[in-house]
Amino acid sequence: MGKLVAFLYGIVAYLVFAIVIMYSLGFVSGLVVPKTIDSGPAGPLVESIVINLVLLTIFALQHSVMARPQFKKWWTTIVPKSVERSTYVLLASLALALVFWQWRPIPGVVWDVKDPTIAASLLYLGLFGWVLVFLSTFMINHFELFGLHQVANNLAGKPMPPMKFKTPMLYNVVRHPIYLGFIIFVWATPVMTAGHLLFAGVVTAYIFVGIALEEHDLIAVFGDEYRRYRQRVAMIVPFIGRSS
Fold first, then answer.
1. What is the rounded distance in angstroms from the CA atom of residue 68 to the CA atom of residue 234?
2. What residues contact residue 70 under an 8 Å CB cut-off, 6+ apart?
3. CA 57, CA 52: separation in Å to the nearest integer?
4. At what angle do helices 177-187 and 116-139 cross, to 10 degrees?
5. Is 244 among the domain residues?
6. Which tens digits make up the pLDDT trace of 21-78?
7. 84 — alpha (psi -120 to 50), left (phi > 0) or beta?
8. Is residue 100 part of a domain?
9. Is there a domain that residue 31 lies in?
C-alpha cells in the first residue's frame, strides 16, 4: 500500500509540474492564459520590484537548496528516497506557480518590434526555446528527472540503477541545453517590458549560479570524467565557454 501511495504521489507531483510548466509558456509569451507577465494593473514601482524579486528568490532558493547533495542526505531521513525527487518537483512547481500568481507587472517598453516578420520570428524563437527545454530532458531521462522513474521502480520493487555519466545528442554540443532553452525562451520576445526584462535578467543570472552549483556537484560525483567534458564541450553557447 505504501508503494502504491508513493506512486500515486509521484503521478500527482508530475501532473502539477506539467500544468505549471504549460502555464509558463503562456505567462512569458503572453498567449492564452488569464494572467501573463504583463497583464493586470501596475502598482507602485518599488513595491512591484521588491515583490517580484522576493518571488523569484523563493523559487531560486527552493530550487537550489533542495538540489544539493547535503540537503538530500538530510531530507531523505525525513521523506522516503523513492519520493524525494517527486517532492522536489512538486515544491518547485508550487514555487513557480506562486511567481505566476503574485507577479506584479511593470510597464515601460524596452523594445517593441513593429515589423511583423521579425516579431513573429522572435515569438517562434521563444517557443523553440521552450520546446528545446523538453527535448533536452528526454535526451537524458525525462521520467527520472521529474521523479516518475523512482516511484515506478519503487512500486515494482526494483532498485534505481546507479548514476551514469552520459552526453547524448545536444549534450555533445552544449553542456546545459535545458538552460539554453530557458534563456532563449525568456529573452526572445517581440515586446520587452520592464517587468519582462526584470524576469529575464533574474532568471538568467540564477541559471548561471545554478550551473556553477550543479557542475560542482557533478565534478564531486564523476571527477576527471566531467572535467574532461567541460574542456571539450561549451557551457551554454556552442564553442564558447569551455573550461580551460
1. 23
2. none
3. 9
4. 160
5. no
6. 999 999 999 888 999 999 988 899 999 999 999 999 999 999 889 988 899 999 999 9
7. alpha
8. yes
9. yes
C-alpha to C-alpha distance for 64 and 95, rounded to whole angstroms = 12
> Could you tell me the pTM of the whole model?
0.89
State which residues form the domain around 161.
2-232
In a domain, 104, yes or no: yes
DSSP string, the chain: -HHHHHHHHHHHHHHHHHHHHHHHHHHHHT-SSSS-TT-S----HHHHHHHHHHHHHHHHHHHHHTTSHHHHHHHTTTS-GGGHHHHHHHHHHHHHHHHHHH------EEEE---HHHHHHHHHHHHHHHHHHHHHHHHS-HHHHTTHHHHHHHHHT-PPPPP-----GGGGTBS-HHHHHHHHHHH--SEEEHHHHHHHHHHHHHHHHHHHHHHHHHHHHHTHHHHHHHHHSBSSBTTBS---
CA atoms within 13 A on the CB side of 115: 4
Q: Using N-to-C axis directions, what is the helix angle for 45-65 and 194-222, rounded to 10°?
A: 20
| Number of domains within the chain | 1
Q: Cell numbers 497583464 label which residue?
A: 39
CA 7 to chain centre: 23
CA atoms in the 13 A half-sphere facing the CB of 103 = 27
Tell me the per-residue pLDDT of 109-128, one tens digit each, with 9 for 90 and over.
999 999 999 999 999 999 99
